Amino acid sequence: MQTSDFDYELPDELIAQHPPEKRGDSRMLVVDRAAGTIEHRRFSDFPEYVRADDLLVLNDTRVVAARFFSNDGTQEILRVEALGERLWKCLVKPGKKFKPGRTIEIGECTGTVTAICEEGGERLIAFDTAPDEAVHGHLALPPYIHRPDAVTDKDRYQTVYARESGAIAAPTAGLHFSKEMLATLPHTFVTLHVGIGTFRPVSSHTISGHHMHSERYQLDPAAAAAIRASGRTIAIGTTVVRVLETCAREGGGELAAGRGETDIFIHPPYEFRAVDALLTNFHLPKSTLLMLVSALAGRELILKAYREAVGERYRFFSYGDCMLIL
Questions:
Q1: 16, 99, 225, 262 from 146: Cα distances, Å
Q2: Is 56 in contact with 67 (CB distance < 8 Å)?
Q3: Tens of pLDDT along 207-234?
Q4: In order of start, what are the domains of the chain with their CATH numbers?
């Protein structure tokens, strides 16, 4: 399939730049795969769609402040992996200036570029002392949010159930849930630390030419047992889908506990083994996540739903509205 098969028109003004005033005060587009229907609801209606034997599966990763600026404000790094306390793999700006031997000063710390990674162009930066994340770190808001991170983002760009630190970006479907709503719904957790793939577009003309970056995941035995014993498994976000489908693949078709790294790329055609329904935000045109939801609901139905969402002026992407696929 062509990458262009997953394109759609999106006016810039529909890209949410801020979260709604109240967590969960969002619209929810409901797609019924069997009936081929599209319904416009509110996220507050979500519990109506959860049956007694369903189980919600959520990603409990916690977003870290991984973006740093040089003291003079001319350089920027995004830590994508800590290879040690003082050795980081980073995306950098401006790329042309970050050659081996180049230094960056962050507070009282000095980092030196030691190597350039061949595949993705990330830099290995060795620091004399590690920069203090609490003092100098910023949340790496997605590039389509055209503003610096604010104090309010420390709370709102984090799910209420986040506990395992390690993600660069938030599992945004979970941002809609309040503690009060979640307490009323049967649920369990997996962990997937959202990584560099979030910031990488599909650059090949065909989807078969795209390579996914790996991300660390964990599914505990108790959670795996609860999921196997449930009726429908409702994944809260595409990161959960990637964990569960990876674990089902590793288990030979049966969901098995596990941990490691996954580079699973889900796109049409794909046979889902572990996920029955999905709550997700709206995704960028020609993105791997749009391909994933198209694999679940069918490309034509998803693109029809997206056209309706645009026509009805839904808010898109991380701080935007959501879609429930049944």
A1: 10, 28, 42, 30
A2: no
A3: 989 888 899 999 999 999 999 999 999 9
A4: 3-63+143-325 (3.40.1780.10), 67-136 (2.40.10.240)
Measured from the Cβ of residue 256, the count of other Cβ atoms closer than 10 Å reads 15
Q: In whole angstroms, what is the distance from residue 50 CA to residue 135 CA?
A: 42
| 222: phi then psi, degrees, rounded to nearest 5 | -65, -40
- Check pLDDT > 80 for residue 199: no
Q: Are strands 123-127 and 164-167 parallel, antiparallel or unpaired?
A: unpaired
Region of 237 (left: φ > 0; alpha: ψ -120 to 50; beta: rest) is: left
Whose CA is closest to 115, among 104, 105, 101?
A: 101
List the one residue out of 139, 141, 187, 160 whose CA is nearest residue 22: 160
- Please give the C-alpha separations between residue 253 and each of 244, 245, 249, 272, 278, in angstroms, as whole numbers: 11, 9, 6, 10, 19
Report the SS3 class of residue 167.
Answer: strand
Residue 21, token pair as written in the block: 């005033």
Residue 28, beta-bridge partner list = 41, 322
Which tens digit of pLDDT belongs to each residue from 10-57?
A: 999 999 999 999 999 999 999 999 999 999 999 999 999 999 999 999
